[in-house]
Amino acid sequence: MDRSGLDFSRIKTWLSYCDTNHHGACLRIEDPWKRVDPPASLYFVDVEDERVSLLPGTSTYLTLSYVWGTDSSPLISTTANIDDLSTSHSLAETSPLGKQLPRTIRDAMKVTRELGYRYLWVDRLCIIQDDHVNKPEHIAAMAAIYGNSSLTIIADNGDDVNGLPGVGQSDTAERHPFDVISLPDGIQLVLDDPKPGSHPNLLPEKSYHRRDWTLQEELLSNRTLKFNPQEVKWMCRKSRFREILNDKDQISDNRKSSIEIQLFKPKPDITTYGHLAEDYTSRFLTYDSDAVNAFSAIIAAFSKSMSGGMLYGVPELLFEGALLWQPREPLRRRTSPTAPSWSFLGWQGSGLSVRTWSALYLNTAHDKYRKDVYFNSQVRLLPCAEFYKTDMRTGEQLAIRSSHYSEENSKNGEDLSDYHADKAPIPQEPYPHLSSLRGRRFSPCVLNFAVSWLGMCFPLGKTVVKVSVKMWLCLIRMDRSLVR
Hints:
This protein is an alpha+beta fold and 484 residues long. It has 13 helices and 22 strands. The protein has an 8-stranded mixed sheet with strand order 2-1-4-3-5-8-9-10, sandwiched between helices. Strands 17-21-22 form a 3-stranded antiparallel sheet. α9 (270-282) runs antiparallel to α12 (355-365). The longest helix has 14 residues, at 8-21. It comes from Podospora aff. communis PSN243. Residues 403-422 are annotated as: Disordered.
């Protein structure tokens, strides 16, 4: 089945089906607990006037999720050129600035226009990249930006220079390397022949599903339109459509999107958060300094249900247990000034495991809703060290509340009022990272807090393969005997 070009009328049919039959449920988050308010104002790409415009954050817009290329010449928004970018038709194909625009963004502008929308949010143009006030605020608001978007366009085919298959300069490329077998009664069997190495773990580092930033962008989107070399795929909260299949054979109103299934739950979901932590660590960043930023939206989403919020991605309510992540194979230490060695955010590799989080959390909480328990109910963590955090704004030192180990939180039928939302802003200025976690050294974290402990921890810059587990297993009491 070979085609060239993209049938925008069909995509409009998918869009219309969602709008008509789902009654706005895929656009609005009615539950106040799950709702994330957008920033007061945002920059958008005006695809009609071909410029960048500052508008209310409540505007109707699309978002683009893609992989940045390695070419340093493509256009970005800066304090020096934002006024020029705000000029009418500054992004036209024939303009000096427009000629620098990556193909993927150019194609996304066309998709936005063809679908009847006017505004598109693109990080490299809508975040002023050298503004040290604007940029941290927008990065901290990524959950709201993608969560309130009408649709996220996903470029699942290389980096920003490749464009969107079937759109723009790519509209004549063959996009469907499928074989079709005709069966009786008009049934067609489609055989997908993926290219060698198409498994996610075998994809190149620059692939969409191997990049850290794209994880939270896709998860936080209510509706997505994914472009890959084979076809275009639609997904909303209640339905999915594939370009290669007949629409009448794939209508379903019983699906839930990732944002409903995995994020913004009223009770702490340590298991799902742990899976995302492992996924994130296995992906790649162009700059290690983005290690905290690229996971900040997921941290913000899960912080809503976790008492105390997060400390560099480590849940405070299970702080001692959450330090029990372990590498199954050597990991690479990220050279980031804001990601400490004791947090999973400070490491990169496919061998990180946080399975002990679920075991320790589920067994002490007796959570009747979850079944994926790794150990028996005798597993208990006995904290034997004092941990502190320091408010970077006031200098006040506070004990870390590992509230999950208290008697009240270890009973059945936990009261949801025990949990509360904690904002998770990104530090707005760089800090020197720790040379070690000994004594009373402090380091900032996602909550504007610093973490220290009275004792010893793992040395910075080294992969602790089995030592970390051995050091901490003495804290786990199983069947009333110490495991060493």
